[in-house]
Design goal:
The chain has 115 residues and is mainly alpha-helical. The protein is built from five helices and three strands, in the order αβααββαα.
Length: 115
């Protein structure tokens, strides 16, 4: 092993140069936020067609009906797990629309039967 003696300025210059070279060589990765606090998770869910209130989110967490993780007292949501949960949910109002369609078809049959 070789011992080098240098000044603080020389060492600073060498380290800055090395870091600069590394930054130029390696493309910067954009780090995507994957852990979301409740407010951001709620915004993600609402922007994907499932309208929830903050209080409803707390109920879903309490019941274990939505994927979440506890870190101490902090509740966080994994973005990928939330996207899977959103994809598994039926479209908003789909059951209501099915009921509407059944009523309409029934009414149409009755009208045809009266003529």
């Amino acid at each position: 092993m070789e011992l080098l003696i240098t000044t603080r300025e020389e060492l600073t210059s060498v380290v800055q140069s090395a870091i600069s070279d590394l930054v130029k060589q390696k493309p910067q990765k954009v780090i995507e936020k994957t852990w979301l606090p409740l407010v951001d998770a709620l915004e993600l869910i609402n922007s994907n067609g499932i309208k929830l209130k903050k209080s409803t989110m707390y109920v879903l967490v309490h019941r274990g009906e939505i994927p979440y993780h506890k870190f101490g007292q902090t509740t966080l949501f994994d973005k990928n797990e939330l996207m899977d949960w959103i994809a598994a949910k039926p479209a908003r109002g789909s059951k209501f629309r099915e009921g509407q369609n059944a009523v309409i078809k029934s009414a149409q049959r009755r009208l045809v039967g009266k003529n």
